[in-house]
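Quarterly update from the structural biology core.
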Amino acid sequence: MPELRKDPIVGRWVIISTERARRPSDFATEPVRATGGDCPFCSGNEAKTPPEILAGRPPGSGPNQPGWSYRVVSNMFPALRIEGELDPSGEGLFDRMNGVGAHEVVIEAPDHRATLATLSTDALADVLLAFRERLLDLRKDPRFEYALVFKNHGEAAGASLEHPHSQLIATPIIPVMVAEELAGSARYYAMKERCVWCDIVRQERREGRRRIVEANGFVALAPFAPRFPFETWILPVAHGAAYEDSGVDQLRGLAGLLGDFLRRMNRVLGDPPFNFMLHTAPLRETQLDSFHWHLEIIPKLTRVAGFEWGSGFFINSVPPEDAAEALRADAG
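Predicted structure, tokenized:
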């Protein structure tokens, strides 16, 4: 029989459609293939991007030329622009402000064919540390309230270029999905004086049914009420609200577990397109006892249709216990 499950943080209900239960092999995904060509992110094409904001370079390697291991540049077609003031105003009952923000691209490797799953642990750690450095820098700008790091891997997941890259957008308001998590976490903390995320980590580590892999102070788990098949959260075991306050060793530990998880996912699901989002504390509220930063990884295996858009319910054909078991069993 199908189940209705409630997410303990935001209160969102999902339908676990056990009568439609599917195995990993039932999801026909087109593997992500690197096509190359005249790619602006490839080594040697540095002049085709805006000047680098940050880069991993050996001593003696000058900016905006080959020799880098990763680069951070402004997006050529930004959703929000860094210049200007917000100038909020009203039009009757409607509110508006200028589209001020930051939109950056993190080019994760010089090799067009690389992926986060194929990078060495050290190279992946450098990318994670680049996220941290950009968040720390953007936190200094009083116009920005939030910065979201995200990745679209594969055309079906929204990527317009095959070259391995992720993005960061800083906004003058807190996004609604993050605001829902913050509010739900605060309600739970007000009732129990405990972090809901810490309680989830403790329970899943103890029971083990939805835990996928744990290492280096991090745990990857299938959430109790996942919106999508094989949705996975990666959380630090120790409480922390702001990703950018993580230490170097901590993020190197995350790199090891994240690479392990992505390789498991690729083996089980056939290198699927996926989206990756980093949910961290707002830039002005980094010391929250109620919030716990985490990564959300969602393989692009199904489509959101009319019922989901109209109701806010999500229908998931793979129970999270089954997803966790499949990913846990594939240790490589």
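The chain has one domain: 3-81+94-329.
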